[in-house]
Specification:
Layout: H1 2-17, H2 27-32, H3 38-44, H4 48-67, H5 75-87, H6 90-98, H7 103-117, H8 123-126, H9 130-153, H10 160-171
Helix pairs in contact: 1-3, 1-4, 4-7, 5-10, 6-9, 7-9
C-alpha cells in the first residue's frame, strides 16, 4: 500500500499545483483530497517537497528505462531522448519551473547520472578518475537542468533536437 499511497499523494499534489502555487498548498490540503489522513502522509513522506521529488525520481527512472534498449548512445542522442521525454511532461515541468522546484530534477539526475551515462560510452570519460568524473557528472546534471529551465521559460520554442545539439556543443570537448 505504501507505493499506492505515495502515488496517490503525488497525483493529488500535482493536480493541486494546477490551481495553486506550491507554497500555498498545505499537507492538510493534500490529505483532504486523498482518502488518507496526515499520519499516512508522514509515514510516506517528510514534506511536500519529498512528494515532488518522489514524482521526479519516478520520471528519471522512466527516462533511464527508455535508454535501456541499447548501450551505445552518443551524448547528442541521449540528450535528445532526455528533452523529448521532458516535452511529454511539459505541464509538470512548467509547474516545477513556476514554483522554483527544478533543483529536484537536478538532484535526481545527479543521483542517477552514473546509470544514465552507462548508455553513453566515451573513451575520454573512461580514462578519467572517479573524482574528476564526479565533477563532470555534476556539470552535466546542472547543465541539463539549466537547459530545461531556459527551455520552459521560453515556452518550449526549440525542438528536443535543437536542444540536444546545444548540449552536445557545450559538452563536445568533454566527451
Amino acid at each position: 500500500m505504501s507505493s499506492k499511497a505515495k502515488d496517490i499523494f503525488s497525483e493529488t499534489l500535482i493536480k493541486l499545483l494546477e490551481i495553486n502555487p506550491f507554497k500555498k498548498i498545505s499537507i492538510s490540503k493534500i490529505c483532504e483530497n486523498t482518502p488518507f489522513v496526515r499520519k499516512t502522509f508522514y509515514n510516506n513522506f517528510d514534506s511536500k517537497e519529498d512528494v515532488i521529488e518522489y514524482e521526479v525520481e519516478k520520471s528519471i527512472k522512466e527516462y533511464i528505462n527508455l535508454l535501456d534498449n541499447r548501450n551505445d548512445y552518443t551524448i547528442k542522442e541521449a540528450s535528445m531522448v532526455y528533452f523529448t521525454f521532458w516535452l511529454t511532461r511539459k505541464k509538470f515541468l512548467e509547474k516545477l519551473v513556476d514554483n522554483d522546484l527544478l533543483h529536484l530534477i537536478q538532484r535526481q539526475v545527479a543521483k542517477y547520472i552514473d546509470e544514465i551515462y552507462k548508455f553513453v560510452p566515451s573513451q575520454k570519460l573512461d580514462q578519467l578518475g572517479e573524482e574528476t568524473l564526479k565533477y563532470i557528472y555534476n556539470f552535466y546534471s546542472a547543465g541539463l537542468c539549466s537547459l530545461l529551465n531556459s527551455w520552459a521559460k521560453s515556452g518550449f520554442e526549440e525542438s528536443p533536437k535543437e536542444l540536444s545539439l546545444v548540449f552536445n556543443s557545450i559538452t563536445e570537448g568533454i566527451n
